[in-house]
Design goal:
The complex is a heterodimer of chains A (about 325) and B (about 300). Chain A is mainly α. Helix content of chain A is about 75%, strand content about 0%. The chains are: A mainly alpha (about 325), B mainly alpha (about 300).
């Protein structure tokens, strides 16, 4: 119990530090760290969304990068048409519209693919989610109108009342507030009766089914919520990088998201944030030293799977293995 | 739509299908017997291509290069199994996916270190580089014909190996009950290493065969592995027969879709609409097929009976 409290405090401290430190970096003239922190926060939102189904629901989705891509293109495409004409119905710079579109489109994609994926289990589920994500990848590669393989530059960031995303600090704080909101949403879900069913089905599906719950519907709902949050993260990422391309939803991106969740500790509310933090920092430090940084990085990933059980949250709380 | 082009594309579709089968057969073998999800299977395909490319440039002969490269990929597979894969058999599929994801980074970056960032083109001997007329008006590249022949021979060989040899019997027995096989005094660890190395050779061979057409490059493994996964999902994971049939279906549908879908669309919609939508739909065609098949049969077309 004490150890559980300890790990909670450590991560809570990190989350708070993430709220305070980057603005300090900015004021001290270190804009680079601010950029890094913004990217980290946005990917952490995606990891938190994946954790909802992977960590708490036991559903190993290998296709979450698709939701990021869908969200990002839901910012890119309306902006493109607002700038270059055609498709008046969706042509707008309005951030509220774009975010709503991103969340809806991601949720819809999650609903349709989830209905098929969730009929399968185990390794089938892993591969099918991966294949569907690759389908979206190839769809955007073949859409020449939006740049195809080369991607799309977002000329104008989403416009919100009172908020200006062109300002790095405001972009950061907006993302940070979104992360906190995503964490609160996941926490509320997990502590509700819905969350209890979801976690119960992970441990023993038959038992929960016997209790009279339609676990398929519960899982589908969780999958849709997770996809929607991830689509939101994609909309943020598009706004942050101002350049979007199918590469954002390559299956290796999905793999990285999974790693962030596992690294931090799947099935802990704050774990994915810790995982994203370590992942991005290690990536940044290693890529500083050599262009072959994927080699030590890959070895590190293998070593973590082989020797660290329960992720870093497990290490902190002292119950690894 | 003219008939000659149609047959040429059929031919290309079958060729792609057999190549996919080579990759998918190793994947399904390793999964069916070792219960192991190997994302890094595509990297073995890439290694096969690179080793073959280097050897072709060294020996000046593509066929010699293939013959020498095959045992080399087996050795690579052997060491990967001994060092990493072996520790993961009793782990969850999630752990296997993550560890082999790390393995991809290691193998791809190693290839980058050894062979450099650019792809390597593989020259063919003159007698393989030409075209042959199969029957009147139907001229095909002789190298693609070789790929088809090799694919068919390997498929027949695997069928014979799995169904009619002692090793095949052990493989099938190991797939249905691992503990029982080792209780009967069979060295299951060695069997597993053999199977993994066999999978590596099959993937490597596919990479060698494609390298004269596309050249050996770093990203090639990642591209084929997803399609190979689609193949074994449709076929039923662990089923060799399923992998063969699904690979041919996928090869045909993908090739035909890319060539003729716009013509088909033009019947029902305007030329402009057809030309914009056809590439998008044909890129998604195999995934749509996968979704349809899974909606009807969640375990694929030929799910192995015992699992």
């Amino acid at each position: 119990m004490m150890q559980k409290l300890k790990s909670g405090w450590v991560t809570l401290g990190i989350v708070l530090a993430l709220g305070i430190l980057p603005p300090v970096f900015l004021w001290s003239g270190q804009a680079f760290y601010m950029d890094l922190a913004t990217r980290l926060i946005i990917l952490a939102i995606a990891a938190v969304s994946l954790n909802l189904i992977l960590g708490f629901g036991g559903l190993v989705s290998f296709g979450h990068a698709a939701f990021i891509g869908i969200g990002a293109y839901c910012v890119g495409i309306p902006t493109y048409h607002a700038t270059y004409g055609e498709f008046g119905a969706i042509a707008t710079y309005s951030g509220l519209f774009q975010i709503l579109l991103a969340v809806t489109a991601a949720a819809l994609f999650a609903l349709i693919t989830g209905m098929i994926c969730l009929r399968t289990k185990g390794v089938y589920f892993i591969m099918i989610t991966m294949a569907f994500a690759q389908m979206v990848f190839y769809l955007f590669v073949s859409l020449e109108a939006y740049g195809g393989d080369d991607g799309l530059v977002i000329d104008t960031r989403s416009e919100f009342p009172l908020i200006n995303l062109d300002d790095p600090l405001q972009m950061y704080l907006f993302s940070y507030a979104s992360l906190v909101a995503a964490l609160l949403i996941v926490r509320t879900i997990i502590r509700s009766r819905f969350g209890a069913v979801l976690r119960g089905a992970k441990d023993n599906n038959e038992r929960v089914v016997t209790l009279g719950y339609n676990t398929y519907l519960y899982r589908l709902t969780a999958y849709v919520i997770s996809g929607a949050i991830c689509g939101y993260a994609g909309a943020l990422l598009g706004n942050f990088t101002t350049f979007i391309s199918p590469e954002m939803m390559d299956w290796t991106r999905s793999g990285e998201l999974m790693f962030m969740v596992i690294l931090g500790g799947a099935g802990t509310t704050l774990g994915p944030v810790l995982g994203s933090l370590i992942f991005i920092l290690v990536e940044e430090v290693l890529s500083h030293f050599t262009i072959y940084w994927h080699l030590p990085f890959g070895i590190m990933l293998i070593a973590i799977v082989l020797f660290v059980r329960g992720g870093l949250m497990g290490l902190v709380s002292g119950n690894a293995n | 739509m003219d008939a000659a082009l149609f047959f040429i594309q059929m031919f290309n579709g079958v060729q792609l299908g057999l190549l996919l089968f080579l990759v998918a057969s190793g994947l399904t073998l390793v999964f069916g017997i070792l219960d192991f999800v190997n994302l890094a299977h595509g990297s073995l395909y890439m290694i096969g291509a690179f080793v073959c490319a280097s050897l072709t440039l060294l020996t000046g002969n593509f066929l010699w290069a293939v013959l020498i490269a095959l045992p080399i990929t087996a050795v690579v597979g052997f060491f990967i199994e001994r060092i990493v894969v072996r520790r993961l058999y009793h782990r969850s599929h999630l752990d296997q996916v993550l560890a082999t994801f790390g393995l991809i980074l290691v193998l791809d970056t190693s290839a980058h270190l050894i062979w450099g960032p650019a792809g390597i083109a593989v020259p063919l001997p003159a007698w393989l580089d030409g075209r042959v007329e199969l029957f009147s008006g139907f001229v095909v590249p002789s190298f693609r014909l070789l790929i088809i022949a090799t694919g068919l021979v390997i498929a027949a060989g695997l069928f014979w190996l799995v169904n009619y040899t002692r090793l095949g019997m052990l493989i099938r027995a190991g797939a249905s009950n691992r503990t029982m096989v080792s209780a009967l005094g069979i060295d299951i660890q060695t069997l597993f290493t053999l199977v993994f190395a066999l999978g590596a050779v099959l993937a490597g061979l596919a990479g060698m065969l494609i390298s004269p057409i596309t050249e050996a490059s770093i990203g090639m493994g990642g591209e084929i592995i997803i399609t190979a996964f689609v193949v074994i999902i449709i076929g039923g994971i662990g089923s060799m027969k399923g992998a063969f049939i699904a690979a041919i279906i996928i090869g045909l549908i993908d090739t035909m879709g890319r060539s003729f879908l716009d013509d088909l669309f033009k019947i029902v919609m305007s030329t402009e609409a057809a030309e914009t939508s056809a590439p998008a739909v044909s890129a998604m065609l195999i995934y749509i097929l996968m979704a349809l098949i899974l909606a009807l049969r969640p375990q694929g077309l030929f799910p192995p009976k015992v699992r």
